[in-house]
Amino acid sequence: MKTVKLGIAGLGHVGCGLIELVERQAELRLPGKLEIVGVSARSKSRNRPVDISGYRWFDDAATLAEDPEVDVFVELVGGSDGPAKFAVEEAIKAGKHVVTANKALIAMHGQALEKLAQEKDVDLMFEAAVAGGVPVVRVLRDSLTGVTINRVSGILNGTCNYLTTEMLDTGRSYDEVLEEAQKLGYAEADPTLDVSGMDAAHKAAILASIAFTADLDFSKVSVKGVDTVELIDLVLADRLGLRIKLIAEGLLTDAGVVCRVAPLAMPVEHPLARVNGALNTVRVEGDPVGAVTLTGPGAGAGPTASAVMGDISKLFTPTARSPFGRAKHHESRQFVDAEPAERSAFFFRVKLADRPGALASLTEALAAHDVSVNKLLQESADDSDVSPVAIVTHVCSRGDIDAASARVSALEASVGAPQVIPIDAGN
Ligand SMILES: NC(=O)c1ccc[n+]([C@@H]2O[C@H](COP(=O)([O-])OP(=O)(O)OC[C@H]3O[C@@H](n4cnc5c(N)ncnc54)[C@H](OP(=O)(O)O)[C@@H]3O)[C@@H](O)[C@H]2O)c1
Fold first, then answer.
1. In 3D, which of 72, 122, 110 has the Cα closest to residue 312?
2. Which one of 4, 202, 225, 351 has the fewest CB atoms closer than 10 angstroms to its CB?
3. Residues β-bridged to residue 387
4. In the structure, which protein residues have their CB atom closer than 6 angstroms to any atom of ligand 1?
5. What is the CA radius of gyration of the chain?
């Protein structure tokens, strides 16, 4: 039976989860035997849920990466640069296969690392970097090579999905739900990477690059988070038959690949609208398959470690296949900026001072930019005499709705900036 020898750098949630899995490998369906030949983290003495005293300790992840005993270097440190990147580069240069869960590293440097890995004839695998325990990278890269993909979209940040689900279910504000999520460990102490949409953007860029054989250019990814979504948006959207979710997507357009993360409204019967709580989901649309949807736990020690293990198990028979599934004869597409002329219906919410003529001034401002109203819902004024108004527009261009929004914002009756969220009809 073949033995694969692992060097594991990073002994946090995922690293310890992986060690637990390796220790009970007899229960798993692995093609051979795994042996941990060394581990590395910041602090040797830190208390951990697994006993690491039986493994060789390395103060420096890069030294472990190059160790002659190591066949596969597993990077579970995190961060787009610094020790994670350096150790991965050193591992590849030393001819080691690499498995990582590090979306930031792959989103920012994936293409350069791919080049290095191909030069050195080694595998670089990152199933756990996107949607944790949901096996989507290899499904896209390998299983769906027979599909011409036109869109890949999904809910790729469990924290954001938990926040919007919980706000709507409990009627609590963004700040209240976030604070509770931090106490329960569902959100990081510093949630910025999640709520700003950046974490989902890293994952979306990786998926788009694989789905469309595109050179991954993270500078072209447009990113908006859930931190601007208010409870009133979710409540009014719900009354209009819509759910608002943070959606990450890659689209194939005539100009190239558009990749973005932003809140999106969708009818309650849309497949993504029904994914609640901390779950992740990825929906791949293409010809001739139609749509394929994968849903499951997008984070957590166990699910993420299981995805790392899935990659490791492939390395009993290395292939040195392009990590992004590209071959020399494939034509590479480019990431491009989102189309300003793109058309859709929009969920538009504004807060108006409760005074005569306010609503008329709103509809006039919209009409001045060719934005017409499909549905309108006005809430009664609160104690401060402010009345929220939600509108579902007819289909119009992004440019027109943005111009209308600026005009509405400047109205005397308008309080605060309007909320503008595209609606995905799910066709
Ligand atoms: N957690 C999840 O659910 C999840 C899901 C998908 C992907 N991921 C990805 O998996 C990776 C690891 O995540 P995690 O949640 O396990 O992180 P974590 O719990 O914060 O653990 C990070 C580990 O890296 C070590 N480390 C930090 N800086 C280091 C340095 N300069 N040199 C060597 N080791 C260093 C830490 O050492 P000490 O323990 O000594 O402090 C710790 O063991 C990240 O790329 C993350 O994005 C995580």
1. 72
2. 4
3. 352
4. 10-15, 40-43, 46, 61, 76-78, 83, 101-103, 128, 132, 299-300, 304
5. 24
Mean pLDDT across the chain: 96
Q: Would you state the pLDDT for residue 427?
A: 63
CA of 52 to the centre of ligand 1 (A): 16
Q: How far is CA 398 from the centre of its chain?
A: 23
What is the Å distance from ligand 1's center to 83 Cα? 11
Chain segment 187-236, per-residue pLDDT in tens: 889 999 999 999 999 999 999 999 999 999 999 999 999 999 999 999 99
DSSP single-letter state for residue 141: I
Contact between 77 and 87 under an 8 Å Cβ cutoff? The reply is yes
With contact defined as beta carbons under 8 Å apart, do 165 and 277 qualify?
A: yes
Half-sphere exposure of 130 (CA within 13 A, CB side): 32
* Domains of the chain in sequence order: 3-129 (3.40.50.720), 137-297+329-336 (3.30.360.10), 343-423 (3.30.70.260)
Closest to 87 in 3D by CA, of 21, 190, 20, 8: 8
Whole-angstrom distance, CA of residue 73 vs CA of residue 126: 12
Identify the band that residue 342 occupies on the pLDDT scale cut at 50, 70 and 90: confident
Out of 304, 306, 311, mutate this one to test ligand 1's pocket (max ligand atoms within 8 Å of CB): namely: 304
**Which has the minimum average pLDDT: 16-25, 102-111, 122-131, 328-337?**
328-337
Mapped onto helix, strand or coil, the DSSP state of residue 7 is strand
pLDDT of residue 341 exceeding 80, the answer is no
DSSP 339: P
* 203 is a catalytic site residue: yes
> How remote is the CA of residue 11 from the centroid of ligand 1, in Å?
7
Q: Quick check: 426 pLDDT over 80?
A: no
Contact 172, 231 (CB under 8 A): yes
Q: Where are the alpha helices (DSSP H) in 280-414?
A: 301-314, 358-367, 398-409
CA–CA separation, 364 and 357 (whole Å): 10
Q: Using CA of residue 410, residue 338, residue 259, residue 425, what is the dihedral sign? A: positive
Q: How many CB atoms lie within 10 A of CB 108?
A: 20
Q: pTM (2 decimals)?
A: 0.96
Tell me the percentage of the chain whose pLDDT exceeds 70.
99
**Res 339: pLDDT:** 72
| From 85, 96, 103, 203, the catalytic residue | 203
Site to substitute for ligand 1 among 42, 44, 136, most atoms within 8 A of C-beta: 42
